[in-house]
Every structure is written in C-alpha cells, then in structure tokens.
Write a structure and sequence with these properties.
9-stranded mixed β-sheet; Peroxisomal Thiolase, Chain A, domain 1; single chain; alpha/beta; 11 strands; two-stranded antiparallel sheet
Length: 306
C-alpha cells in the first residue's frame, strides 16, 4: 500500500423517487405530526414535497450509477470497486442478491462490492473514507461510491427531526482532480447518543471534535469554509446543529433540496453538493464541507474545488 494520493470526486448523480408527494398526503399525517412535534407548526419546518420510490431500489441504483459512469466516460469494465452506503434499517431490507443484481445489470465485471452501514446517516461519509483508502492500492483506479436510503412505510416518514424521502446518489473517486478533491475527513461517536441519552453538551462535543480533526489538518476553522452541505433535517433543527458546531447559517446549502426532497438519509450531502454545483458552481480554490449528523454520530469531509 502506498500513502494516500490526491483523491478527486466527480460525476455526481442523484435519482429520486418518481412519486412526488406532500407530507399531508401521508395517511393520518396530522396525528403522526402531533405525536412527533410537540405542537410545532409544520409549515415552519422548510419542507414542501418528498419523493417516494415506485419500484425496486435496485432499479434506481442502476440508473444512478449508470449516469455517473456516463458523465465520467468510464467503462463499466474499468470500475474496480463499488462502495454502497445505507442507513441501518435499510441494510436489513436489502435482498441477499442486491449487489449481484446491480453489478450484473451495469456490466461491472471486474468490480468488487462492499457495503458500509451501522452509522445511520453518517454511513456515506464513512464510506467516503473507505473509498479513499481503497485508492491507496495502486491496482485500484476507479471507485464508485453509492448512497441509498428509502422508507417503505409512509408512517415512518414523519419524525420529530425530519421528513424522510427516497433517493440514491453516486459519484466516482479517482486519483487526481475531480469536481472536488478530498482533503480530509473525520467521524466521531457519541456513546450517550447511541443509548438515546445524548445531551446538548455531548452533541456539541462530538461535532466540534470531528470538525477540529478534519479542518485542523489544514489550519482551518469552520468560518473559513465557503459552503457546508449538511443533513437535510427540519430547518430549525439543521440551523441549531450548525450553530452548536460553530457553523454560520449563511454557510449552509440545504434549503432547496429540503423543500423538494426532504431528508434522504445518508444521501443528503451529495444531493446538496450536486444542487449547489447546478445553482452556483463549485469553484477552484474554494473549500467546502460535507457534513452528516445522526444519533450517536457526527461525520464530515473537507473538500476543495478542483
């Protein structure tokens, strides 16, 4: 194994459920919201619509990865590794032949698959670290990162912290420059949060520790980052989480995707990055932060425009 090379991420692709719905379309929504919300006004949460898958998740994964490879002009036979990331509950619902079906449909004949989970919505940023490690092997040239999250039961979409939507996101990691370069990353754990006993202090501590590890490696602080791509929690929750971590609300880019797609689990940071690039454009020499938070975890990745 060689030292970590410069890693570029590019060819981001996102696929959302074909069914566009409002929260109020969920059966018994008013009761579900009252049970979760402690009388908060849903209209202030920043959500408009969400998307729901109408077919097997494998079809959406194939569509998304195919778009990434097409954009990158990479042949399926030249992909060496694929890293899937999903939240804990979805891992249990994937069929045993999920990877074989996806690889076969895409023609990934030389590709070794792996799945990363057990870190809730932080799983895809943990997968990003793993993908970087894979490229330290000189025989590995192209790694596809795929995040997928979906909610089969509508009653589970309405939570106290987010409205869940369905999505798959993917990108290609290679040596050298991409749309962005991965500079550093960090994942932290809050054991109190894993037991459901987290506090303001424990959440703040894990966030600040992870940010210090990722940013400190480049002598940066949160205020130096151009834009932050966070988890698409309800707007008040997302703003609160950013504030306790030392991130300004003007740095966040999530309102548009939150309004249109809701919280798509561990896919959010890629969705927000791709949306920002479409709306504004990733710029060379600017720094960006991919960020995910979940009960018991906080993860971040420092990125630079290439």
């Amino acid at each position: 194994m060689t030292p970590h090379p410069t890693i570029g991420l590019g060819s981001f692709a996102c696929t959302f459920g074909a069914l566009e719905r409002k929260a109020q379309d969920i059966p018994d929504f008013e009761r579900l919201w009252q049970e979760q919300s402690s009388d908060a006004d849903f209209a202030t949460m920043g959500c408009g619509t969400f998307r729901a898958f109408a077919g097997p998740v494998e079809d959406h994964v194939v569509e998304t990865v195919r778009a990434t490879l097409r954009d990158a002009s990479v042949r399926p036979a030249d992909v060496d590794r694929v890293v899937f990331a999903t939240s804990d509950a979805r891992l249990a619902s994937l069929r045993p032949d999920f990877a074989a079906e996806v690889l076969g449909a895409l023609g990934l004949v030389h590709c070794v698959p792996v799945v990363l989970s057990f870190q809730q919505c932080c799983s895809s940023l943990a997968a990003l670290r793993h993908a970087r490690d894979l490229l330290a092997d000189e025989e590995v040239r192209n790694v596809v990162l795929v995040s997928l999250d979906y909610t089969p039961d509508d009653a589970d979409r309405v939570r106290s912290f987010a409205l869940f939507g369905d999505a798959v996101a993917s990108c290609l990691l290679t040596r050298g420059d991409g749309l962005v370069r991965l500079l550093s990353s960090a994942v932290g754990v809050d054991h109190a949060g894993l037991r459901g006993q987290d506090s303001f202090l424990s959440r703040q501590q894990v966030a600040q520790t992870a940010l210090a590890a990722a940013l400190g490696a480049h002598d940066l602080v949160p205020g130096d980052v151009t834009k932050v791509f966070p988890t698409n929690l309800y707007r008040p929750v997302a703003l609160f989480n950013a504030t306790i971590a030392g991130i300004g609300r003007e740095q966040l880019h999530f309102s548009g995707p939150l309004e249109h797609y809701g919280h798509c689990g561990n896919s959010d940071w890629m969705i927000n990055l791709a949306d920002y690039h479409d709306q504004v454009g990733i710029r060379p020499d600017e720094t960006y932060l991919a960020l995910s938070s979940a009960p018991g975890f906080f993860a971040c990745g420092l990125l630079a425009g290439a």
